[in-house]
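Extended Data, panel c. Modelled sequence:
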Amino acid sequence: MLNANRLALLDALARSGTVHAVGGALSYSPSTVSQQLKVLEQEVGVSLVERAGRGLVLTREGRALAEHAREILARMEEAESDLARLRGTAAGTIRVAVFQTAALSVLPTALDLLASSHPKLRVVVSHIDPARALPALAAREHDLVLGEEYPGRPVARPAGITLVPLFEDPLVLVVSPGTGHGPVGELIFARAWVMEPEGSDARQWAVAACRDLGVEPRVQYESPDLLVQVRLVETGHAIAVVPELLLRRERPRVDRLEFPGRPSRAVFTAHRAAAGNSPAVTAVTEAFAQSVLTR
């Protein structure tokens, strides 16, 4: 009989490519991952991994079993979700990953709602880089993700993942108090910017949006922390484009200007399709939707 935990390790290795990444994602030491993969090889009677430099790669048999493992794990999750639905209560533990502005605003309200309506449900929350969110969800690092998508930067949707739209969050140009005078294009050209690090969807969108206006932004400061960004704006060191969700929550001392085209990012929840009937997933998704209405 194949062991589901060991199949999950094989599936995670097929997705991530390294034993260290598997261990970090599933809270195992690398030595434990290697040992469990050896046990799985003994169970099936073939080599599933082989050395490649300092790491491991899947053999042909390993890749074949990994594909079956993905299907087996999905069917098991479907069965667990259906049984939980028949039981009728959201209980146990659900692992939720969120990005920063959601953690600051909609998360606290959602947790209050869940504590009141589903006291037997334990919600474990962690922060995640939006770029990693859906791959991590597919790899079973989390059970539900609160994610974001910037204009023209659609997130890659792994197979077996369901997205549920929540709301559109306007993106607003902010400058220090009393300095928001003149055409927006001139402000964008003349001022130093603070943006998220290179490679992020937010940075790529912001640079492209400025270039569409015929302006190359002078990015002098970088920070993935939007609270740092608004502080630099408040103190007159930079301008930035930040989500309205953050401005409503933090109420910084800045002047707000409409960015040309009135762009917005999409905020969504995502879960594995196999868990679609899970009362826990449904409860958290609904709590996030309700918290949006009260934000």
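DSSP finds twelve helices and eleven strands in the chain. This feature is highlighted in the accompanying rendering.
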